[in-house]
Amino acid sequence: MAAVDVKVLRCGFCAPCAHVLPLRSRRSEVGGRSARFPVPTSDLRPPTLVGTIKAAIIVALTGIILARCSILEAGTLNSLRPNPFKATTSRAARQDAIRSIPLDKLDADARSKVTSVLSSSNIFRRLPVRVVQCDPDLYLFLVQHPDVVVGIWETLGLSQLTMRKIDRDTYRLADGDGTLGSVECLYRSHDTHVVYVEGRYDGPLFTTPVRGWAVLILKTGYVREPDGRYYITSRLDTFTHLEPGGVEFLTKTFQPLVGKAADSNFIQTVAFLGSLSRTAEVNHRGVARLAGRLHGVHSDARRELARLAEHIAQRSIRLTAHELPSRSAPAKTR
């Protein structure tokens, strides 16, 4: 995998808004800790998935796993503009999300799937922007191999969610509680992913199975700080269409819960990716052993995860060695 070239701090999805994010706020987004702090494997946690309303949030779960978005410029937030760190269902956000889809770069089949969902979607949500300290190559790898993330949760016994790769761009998703779905990546680049999801829920919430379709637009940006640490900003837009009957029940009964559940899952999953990156810095052999145990993940992906973990650890050692002289330099005497 080619390394991501990260040289500037810029916003790839809301430049017209001129949103800016102070460094202190970016650090607080990752728990206020330096990546040099040890992060034990036990700290790796999947999102707390809500067992109900699975038909409605399956697309959110998938988007969370694929979480990627764009990095912001240094400064202070303009208080007169919408707060990107809060979820929104506004018409302006919806139109902005539609404009961000590279329809001209999709083939005819992919374009048909996207336009079909956009024209019939009855739920739209822009999830909160998240910023995480993370190795950019690892982050991009996990975005493009969501089965690796789910495989880690499954191997550690942290989740019943399963995801299996069918072909290069398609995965089968199941939660063991009535939800089945397929996830297809229609477009991918270093800063944009467009994902198409079909889901079906057959459980106690509904008397008959309910089907849903969704398009997820994931935008990503990266920044390298002067100390060599990387920060990644993620934003996810979701367009969902549920069959008649399902959406009415959802809207009347569970709509607030669905939105908050999606936000929480997204936030926790992005944090999980950051935790995995920090764990690789201090325990790359442990991550490599974990990679070897992943069930249902292709051997090439397991080897790449182990290689990336070693690369992250080596880079961390170089950064630490570079910082030590300045810390230990003797004080100047008059």
Structure description:
This protein is globular. By secondary structure, it is an alpha+beta fold. It is built from ten helices and eight strands. α8 packs across α10 (299-328) and α9 runs antiparallel to α10 (299-328). Helices cover 41% and strands 19% of the residues. The chain has a domain at 56-69 and 86-131 and 144-217 and 236-319. A hairpin with a 3-residue loop joins β5 (179-188) and β6 (192-201). It starts with 22 loop residues before the first helix and ends in a 6-residue tail after the last helix. It has helices at 23-29, 54-65, 91-99, 108-120, 136-144, 146-155, 246-253, 255-282, 284-293, 299-328; strands spanning 123-126, 130-133, 162-165, 170-174, 179-188, 192-201, 210-224, 230-242. Strands 1, 2, 3, 4, 5, 6, 7 and 8 form an eight-stranded antiparallel β-sheet that branches.
The coarse overall form would be globular
The rounded distance between the terminal residues' Cα atoms is 52 Å
Binned strand content:
15-25%
Q: Helix/strand-derived class? A: alpha+beta
Overall pLDDT confidence: 76
Number of helices: 10
Largest sheet: 8 strands, antiparallel
The beta-strand count equals 8
Helix content, binned percent: 40-55%
Radius of gyration: 20 Å
